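pipeline: protein-struct stage 2 | run 1193 | DUF2959 domain-containing protein
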Amino acid sequence: MKQLLSLALLGSALLLGGCQSAYYGAMEKVGYHKRDIMVDRVKDAKESQEEAQQQFSSALEEMQALLNHDGGDLEKAYNKAKDEYDSAQSAADDVSNRIDKVEDVAEALFDEWQAEIAEISKASLRSKSQSKLKETRRNYESLMRSMRRAESKMPPILTSMKDNMLYLKHNLNAQTIGAIKGEFTSLKTDITGLIKEMNRSIAESNKFIAAMEAAGQ
């Protein structure tokens, strides 16, 4: 009976996903608290960054193959590069969406934490909880700066990719391909920088997850 109730509450939580406060409340009733949700969402955001790294690298490889194309079906090579660009765009959207979800639960967690601190009557315990909140918030803010910094590098790269793909779409020949090779060199540098920035963000995520899980034990 208890298991059925838990499943029902989880189902309700999913249906109420658009109303976050109701969602968090429903999840807490089955023992899944905001701290747990936050850790899981940071993990999801980290995984989305790892996937985006791979996708941007794949897009770079296909554009390289297109620019180095020598004979054969040029349109087929273009279509492969275009597909990888589209996938990179989707991966970037997923990264942004998951970072936003981390922010949402963090705000809810910190608001709840601060409100509950005010309910602690013993001064020493109240002070310790306040210090822990400040530490967690500080670590979180460092994490978000790192995530947002990596995220900000994606739109300019996607814009450059899109420009090149649209230009090639209407002028698909060897001469046109040769004309954008200089653009590709800059794009390659930008993607290399993006991957490095994401690696730093992933490292920050791992550190934050470890600290949160250790505190919850």
